[in-house]
Amino acid sequence: xxxxxxxxxxxxxxxxxxxxxxxxxxxxxxxxxxxxxxxxxxxxxxxxxxxxxxxxxxxxxxxxxxxxxxxxxxxxxxxxxxxxxxxxxxxxxxxxxxxxxxxxxxxxxxxxxxxxxxxxxxxxxxxxxxxxxxxxxxxxxxxxxxxxxxxxxxxxxxxxxxxxxxxxxxxxxxxxxxxxxxxxxxxxxxxxxxxxxxxxxxxxxxxxxxxxxxxxxxxxxxxxxxxxxxxxxxxxxxxxxxxxxxxxxxxxxxxxxxxxxxxxxxxxxxxxxxxxxxxxxxxxxxxxxxxxxxxxxxxxxxxxxxxxxxxxxxxxxxxxxxxxxxxxxxxxxxxxxxxxxxxxxxxxxxxxxxxxxxxxxxxxxxxxxxxxxxxxxxxxxxxxxxxxxxxxxxxxxxxxxxxxxxxxxxxxxxxxxxxxxxxxxxxxxxxxxxxxxxxxxxxxxxxxxxxxxxxxxxxxxxxxxxxxxxxxxxxxxxxxxxxxxxxxxxxxxxxxxxxxxxxxxxxxxxxxxxxxxxxxxxxxxxxxxxx
Length: 531
Hints:
Elements: H1 3-16, H2 27-35, H3 42-62, E1 68-72, H4 76-90, E2 96-100, H5 102-108, H6 125-157, H7 163-170, E3 179-182, H8 190-203, E4 207-211, E5 227-228, H9 231-247, E6 254-259, E7 266-267, H10 279-284, E8 289-291, E9 305-307, E10 310-314, E11 322-323, H11 329-341, E12 347-350, H12 357-368, E13 376-379, H13 386-400, H14 422-432, H15 434-441, E14 444-449, H16 452-468, H17 474-487, H18 495-498, H19 501-512
Parallel strand pairs: 1-2, 1-14, 2-3, 3-4, 4-6, 5-7, 6-12, 13-14
Antiparallel strand pairs: 7-11, 8-10, 9-10
Helix pairs in contact: 1-2, 4-6, 6-7, 6-8, 8-9, 11-12, 12-15, 13-14, 16-17
């Protein structure tokens, strides 16, 4: 017996026990509403999606072709439309997630207005967006099931076989998928990290990404001025997130440990080493220092260290921050990642300055010498100029192979004059294959684009505004938007339905019967799209 039929039977029994006082209640309608609201709380969602992520991680370990993907979404509607599109075009939501970007929260969801990615936005806006995303995904479930229920009713009235429709209802795949949620550097100390993590998990997050930057000096991973914290500080925050998961009963919650060390040349603190070779000592080995041969050369209030039997002075900037040695980023990344995985993190995020499979693989292979199943969440970032990067990669590869590249100017490869060239075509093939290549060769379990819907919103708005306020007038909207919605089968062409009018009408029928005042009558202009 299906869950749907089981619920109908249970509710019918419950109704019968009320001795006639529930005559206005139809058990099948109540079962439908229950099916349309499968997840009662955010914690239900977090527990459900955590299991999905763990299964996907195991599948990737067995076969690197089984990588996962997501797009960053800054509004619930954007996330909903993304998952509706995935189900429409690909038939399943399997291995497709949502990403919640701290950058987009800062730029688009802060009450202060647009902000840089420096953890200045309200921390409460992060769990609020998680809750909003899942509200819209649950509504997508309700709408799609509502259509199936209507088909079931129509088939019954027509005396048709309903088995196929009933099977679709019984095997319905939810739009609710895992969210990888960005907690930045924790928005404060480890207690602040714990409190915010709890709110995010309660809103539905099964996976929290945290970075090793200094919280009050946090920068976007693709900008300069990044400052990292000692391992002990970062591990305390990983512990804080794990405790939040355990307290709330999400025992298999996922933690992504992000390192910005590849591009970060500064540290705020010199950790205290208590014994040779401990984590603090390893961290301090990367400090850029000058050997002190004569104490007379030491200025008042200089900081000195005894390191490897020598007295050294760490290089300190006017703002009090300390410098790392030039060229130490690779080794610091490896140590960060190994340390995080050995102390409770599940996945890694290495912020790089370019999308280069070989560079990423070099770091991952070094990490896997210590943790063989290490795997990454990787930012396919819009901060990279993908076209220029890959054209230059092809140029360099061809040059190394001895191929004639005299027809190309490496520094000008972004030019449109090269768009139809053999080099550009090869670069596009490499871009197209980047995710599968990197999943296979560089240990990337999850590919995401942090800010895609920020850019698509800007591009589509620019195209519409250019035409609508120009010579095209209304044709710019009709030809560029509405006609495409109709031709491509976008459900939101019926925007009233997408906003919930049909769901509301159905509920009114449940509650009021024939007396229901409904919106979907003959005078509803949405009927013009039923052609």
